[in-house]
Design goal:
The complex is a heterodimer of chains A (397) and B (315).
Chain A lengths: L1 H8 L3 E6 H11 L4 E4 L6 H12 L6 E4 L3 H13 L4 E4 L2 H16 L5 E6 L13 H4 L7 E4 L3 H18 L3 E6 L7 E6 L2 H7 L16 E2 L8 H30 L6 E4 L6 E5 L2 H4 L1 H11 L4 E6 L1 E3 L3 H8 L4 E6 L11 H12 L6 E5 L9 H12 L5 E4 L5
Parallel strand pairs in A: 2-3, 2-4, 4-5, 5-7, 6-7, 11-12, 11-14, 14-15, 15-16
Antiparallel strand pairs in A: 1-8, 6-13, 10-12
Chain B lengths: L27 H13 L3 E5 L3 H6 L11 E3 L5 H18 L8 E7 H6 L2 H10 L4 E6 L39 H6 L5 E6 L3 H14 L5 E6 L3 H4 L6 H10 L6 E4 L2 E4 L3 H6 L8 H4 L10 H23 L1
Parallel strand pairs in B: 1-2, 1-3, 3-4, 4-6, 5-6
Antiparallel strand pairs in B: 5-7, 7-8
Classes of the chains: A alpha/beta (397), B alpha/beta (315).
């Protein structure tokens, strides 16, 4: 009886949203203070929606229409240093232009949250989706999520504020440019009051306040610089625990949780595909089904958290398989492994003494179509004993 | 300019810029910092661009700043300050900012203003943030070792505009940064010199008051003994001669109206009162190579600039 009453009371709000709009709704629920953004495809509709919320008085925040992404990141760094809850978003060249300040945000230990609908990089100019922009931010000291559905985008942005403010590190939430940023899915929204309780306002000790002057962004000589940067590394490595705890609590509060790595049919899998973003749970899962019909024991590992890299999970899931493939949507130019995540996975295994053969698959560059059959083919290649090579899939030669 | 301080004994006593920083002996910018912080008072957040003042005052784990201070990068101090202004205003509305009215002041050198920081400065001015932007101008990139900037004057020697056989010093003229700022139609912009402290302090006060309306700008001449190559006890004298020779005119832009300030106003009214430019140039190593013809050329530029400003002031 009580249960039914509660259910009626908490009638769920489900809206048809693009991942970009899902970000905007999450930012509104998080009650941010300062948003600074510069338009760039495919990010723009995030800020358009936020602008509507601000101009309609639904979100009490100041939207700074900055003159570049470099200034967008600089403005949110300034605002966060003053103690505000901040948000920005960008893609592609914009993320590259921000690059300098990304290091500063983590070095100053500021809980900036940013959305990145991922996109290809120039030249040649491409406005379409892949993960070249995001992968270039790998060593900036940011916590990096890669979501695979609009619902997860919404949930992750809210989680990101809790994580960022707990471990004092900036967080980016990424997802497929266009394939997710501009496609519509049903998204269940949380009660905003409940989100406020999940994201309590706690005054950070080290902010710019006249009552207690501090100096931020000091000049460090060789006798101190290394220690300060090591602290970022320590905080980032240690944040995995917080990411999992926040995810668990979010699950208890709102009914949805994701973990740092998601798996599909990995219990008995001989062959695994490691992937991220929209393809990882759409195409890859479907391909695993088809492969299993063909007698291949196929499974999928989806990387939800890219930084800090979830090494222990990757080791756990891959140590039992006969072979694996990593599908990267970015090229690690001139590197030894073809794709950036493949290189990470290989390193994770090698560092833990695991010797499993793997294939590095590059696919979906500049939004080249990735078909389910392509993923089936990857499973077949693994079954046929192909290993230790780089495959440029979908490439016309 | 609102006259708050009439005489030297009216100026604030409290020090908010600590001694023991690592600036050079006779540092002009350090003198500016001392008076900026004193005049602005403790309810101030300083946003500093990369430059001499950042590297000499914040060597971890020590700091010369007794007000909250942040350095982000070289080209983005105006953008970072915009974020701080935005944060204070929104958090005040939400009841999250409990420090009351707080000044947000950018302090940036000529490189961080004329060159790499010009874009973020323009954006901040255009959007109308409640920020006072202070340019301390020592006319080159001094903390990296005296390279030319857009603020370096014509014919000056720097390490990247050496005096060679074919080219003698910097070819181009100094960029008109005040003109660029005034073109943004800000409420208030002014020039000041570390030799004229009362004038400078009053301009800081005025500019801070006007930030309620929108962004304000101060261009402070702050000579650099190693960069300009003069003995360190002559810093204030160098700044004073810059004003008295008309090389660095003192004026302000107040809600669309240009006004010349003393002693520049007196020099313009009676050109005989202007000291010859040679007096400013002659003891500086960076100008030691100048011929009489070159000095004359520079002097013509100074006079032309004064005439231009007089015309603006008459409008």
């Amino acid at each position: 009886m009580t249960a039914v009453a509660t259910q009626i009371q908490k009638a769920k709000t489900v809206l048809a949203l693009t991942s970009n709009y899902a970000v905007a709704y999450a930012v509104k629920a998080a009650d941010v203070d300062v948003v600074a953004v510069y338009p760039i495809t495919p990010q723009t509709t995030i800020v358009e929606k936020i602008a509507e919320f601000v101009d309609d008085g639904e979100l009490n925040a100041d939207l700074i229409h900055v003159e570049s992404e470099h200034s967008a990141m600089s403005a949110v760094v300034g605002a966060a240093a003053a103690g505000a809850r901040v948000f920005t978003a960008t893609s592609s060249q914009g993320l590259e232009l921000m690059h300098e300040v990304l290091h500063i945000a983590s070095g100053l230990r500021l809980p900036v949250v940013m959305a990145v609908p991922a996109r290809a990089l120039s030249a040649p100019i491409s406005i379409h989706g892949d993960y070249s922009d995001l992968m270039n931010t790998r060593d900036t000291g940011w916590i990096t999520y890669i979501a695979s559905s609009a619902q997860e985008v919404y949930d992750t942005v809210i989680q990101a504020y809790r994580v960022a403010e707990s471990v004092l590190l900036p967080v980016m939430v990424s997802y497929d440019g266009f394939l997710m940023s501009h496609t519509t899915e049903p998204v269940e929204l949380n009660d905003e009051e409940e989100v406020k309780r999940f994201l309590p306002r706690r005054e950070r000790p080290n902010v710019l306040r006249p009552e207690k002057p501090i100096t931020m962004g000091a000049f460090a000589m060789p006798d101190w610089y290394y220690e300060i940067k090591y602290q970022v590394q320590e905080a980032l490595q240690g944040s995995l625990k917080t990411i999992e705890e926040v995810d668990e609590e979010y699950g208890r509060t709102f009914g949805r949780r994701y973990g740092v790595v998601q798996t599909y049919k990995m219990e008995d899998a001989d062959y695994a595909i490691v992937a991220y973003g929209g393809a990882s749970f759409g195409n890859a899962r479907e391909a695993a089904e088809i492969a299993r019909e063909k007698g291949i024991k196929a499974g999928v590992i989806r990387l939800r958290v890219f930084r800090p890299f979830p090494t222990s999970y990757i080791v756990k899931y891959l140590s039992g398989v006969k072979a694996f493939a990593v599908v990267d949507r970015a090229i690690a130019f001139g590197g030894p492994g073809g794709g950036p995540v493949f290189t990470d996975v290989a390193t994770a295994l090698w560092m833990n003494g695991i010797d499993v053969p793997g294939i590095s698959v590059i696919h979906g560059i500049g939004q080249r179509s990735m078909y389910v059959e392509d993923f089936v083919k990857i499973y077949e290649m693994l079954r046929d004993g192909e290993k230790n090579k780089v495959v440029y899939m979908g490439l016309r030669l | 300019m609102k006259v708050v301080y009439k005489a030297i004994w009216d100026l604030p006593v409290e020090e908010l810029f600590a001694s023991g920083h690592r600036a050079c002996a006779g540092c002009g910018p350090a003198i500016a910092m001392r008076w900026i912080t004193k005049t602005a008072g403790p309810n101030t957040i300083v946003v500093n661009a990369t430059g001499c003042m950042e590297v000499t005052t914040t060597q971890y784990p020590e700091t010369a700043w007794m007000v909250p201070y942040i350095h982000v990068a070289f080209e983005n101090s105006a953008a970072a300050a915009a974020g701080i202004d935005s944060a204070i205003r929104t958090m005040t509305k939400k009841g999250l900012w409990k420090s009351g009215k707080t000044n947000v002041i950018v302090i940036a050198g000529d490189g961080g203003t004329y060159d790499i920081g010009l874009q973020s400065l323009s954006g901040m001015l255009e959007r109308g943030h409640h920020v006072l932007y202070i340019l301390y101008d020592n006319e080159a990139y001094m903390n990296t070792g005296i390279q030319r900037s857009g603020g370096t004057p014509r014919f000056a020697w720097t390490t990247t505009t050496p005096v060679g056989k074919a080219i003698r010093g910097k070819i181009q003229a100094k960029k008109d940064i005040m003109g660029i700022v005034m073109a943004h139609r800000v409420p208030y912009a002014a020039t000041a010199s570390i030799s004229n402290i009362i004038d400078m302090a009053n301009k800081i006060k005025t500019a801070l008051e006007y930030t309620e309306e929108g962004p304000t700008f101060l261009h402070i001449l702050a000579p650099c003994p190693p960069g300009w190559r003069f003995p360190e006890e002559r810093t204030v004298e160098a700044a004073r001669l810059a004003v008295e020779t008309g090389y660095f005119p003192l004026y302000e832009y107040d809600h669309g109206k240009v006004r010349l300030n003393p002693p520049t106003s007196a020099i313009v009214a009676d050109p005989k009162r202007r000291k010859p430019l040679r007096e400013f140039l002659k003891f500086q190593g960076r100008f030691a190579h100048l011929t009489d013809a070159e000095i004359e050329e520079l002097e013509k530029e100074v006079v032309a600039n004064l005439n231009y400003l007089a015309k603006l002031a008459s409008l």
